[in-house]
Amino acid sequence: MAPVPTPLPLIPHPASPPIALSIAVSVSAEPRELVLHYRVYGDIDAVRWPEPQGGGMADGLWRHTCLEAFIAQAGQGAYREFNFSPSGQWADYAFSRTRVRDAQTSAPYAPLIERRDTADGVDLVAVLERRHLPPGAWQLGLSAVVEDVRGQVSHWALHHPRPAPDFHDPAGWTLRLPAD
Fold this sequence. Notes:
Blueprint: E1 8-12, E2 21-29, E3 33-42, E4 66-73, E5 79-84, E6 90-97, E7 100-101, E8 112-118, E9 121-129, E10 138-147, E11 153-157, E12 175-177
Antiparallel strand pairs: 1-2, 1-11, 2-3, 3-9, 4-5, 4-10, 5-6, 6-7, 8-9, 10-11, 10-12
């Protein structure tokens, strides 16, 4: 499958504190992997970036600056949540339905994460192997949590269906990718 044609803009939730940023995600569903390329640009000095940690699974990444993907088999209640921290850490959670965590039956999947600092922003590329993702057509929610240097957190997503930020709401998962 070819990449989704243009970078998809994430929008801040109306209840989020303002920060002069733009966030976009390019998506490419390759034969063996799903590639998510997040681009954060604008006033990047206003962002509290997590210190490099070298990688590894970590809980609570969503409390600070982190990029996220929610992936479900279209039409199903079960889904996966992936958190990608600019620190190199990650999280992988399985849910049987909205906010109901599955017991981890296997070790969490470690995605490949690469952070690139550029003159005008920060790029984070996350690569997920298809064999670790739900089969069939996908419904994706792409989102970001941005903590500013004052400690305020803003929530960004393709779509915000509720008055309060809720990335677990499937109504916000507006990107559809067909099965191979």
